[in-house]
Amino acid sequence: MSPHRxxxxxxxxxxxxxxxxxxxxxxxxxxxxxxxxxxxxxTTGNLNGNDDDPSVAMDPQGNIxxxxxxxxxxxxxxxxxxxxxxxxxxxTITWSSPIHITDNAAAQFPPPTQGDEFxxxxxxxxxxxxxxxxxxxLSNQSHILYARSDGTATGWAAxxxxxxxxxxxxxxFANVVRVSATDLRxxxxxxxxxxxxxxxxxxxxxxxxxxATWGAPAEVATLNSSTEQTSLPTILRLPNGLFTxxxxxxxxxxxxxxxxxxxxxxxxxxxxxxxxxASQVTSDPxxxxxxxxxxxxxxxxxxxxxxxxxxxxxxxxxxIVQMKVSDRASFPNLTSRxxxxxxxxxxxxxxxxxxxxxxxVFVMIWVRIQTPPHNQVVYRVxxxx
Length: 385
Prior knowledge:
This protein has a single domain (3-382), classed as Neuraminidase. By secondary structure, it is mostly beta strands. It is built from 2 helices and 25 strands. The strands form 6 sheets. Strands 2, 3, 4, 5 and 6 form a 5-stranded antiparallel sheet that branches. The two termini are 36 Å apart. Helices cover 5% and strands 45% of the residues.
């Protein structure tokens, strides 16, 4: 079983009965007005398995595209859907039939450990879909892979899978970023490239030919720490050229990997994507409340916001919370809770802001463990943060 999956199951077992565990601040309010849709499954084809690690992108026509991994065919492959209609009255989205992007042989990539995980999808202005992810093989090596297509089933079937990293490494958690027409980058985390071996740190590989070939990975040293592990980065390049990053850090080994309770969220900025300044966002006095899997989104006024999973606000299983990037020094104040379902772990949120028939709404896509230990991708349409 992959470290992420094994430890997620451990977290459920360790926290679901811990109803008396405290929070790092007063619980932020759960607010609602306008559209307040229900929680819906993205698909219902694998409710007794695992659908996990969603990546979300918008195409030039305004459709939502989701890529995630599923073990529905006996091993962990990547699948994709896109929205075809959104009904605000019911808060539901009509999705296309799933496209089977990768198709690993179960004998070579037996679950629950081996296979494809953590896709990162970026759709450029031409409509080209750029996809990066990691694949764990039978030798317990994990490598970053890349492919591009037009997003159709035919396009993905014809796509060339390009190895970004190779060798005796455990590389994971890819994040693909378009910098220019001749500069495509994949930021990722390595478990084997930073001393001491087993310590997570962020690296980057660059392509100058639109993903056909990739240069040797380089450490992004100014995002890493000598005293903590650094992982799960989400990195954007803004229209003004500024790079922004959010990621998590936790204590050195021995640890519970990405689900260690010492996890905290960090934020960084860079002018070139190579040299960064970073600062801590979340903290708690006992350093035992897990904040994990952060990402960015922009609200309808263009304000940048952070969203992540947290056990720090009353539910030891984990809620989804958000705040403005500009308010990060005020944590835990000025934070709002987007899910509050005690005992049901929620994690890995992605949010997009949309205007549908004149109505401004948000669509949040995340992972909920409705029936342990099964991770399921779910979504909700709502108006208020």
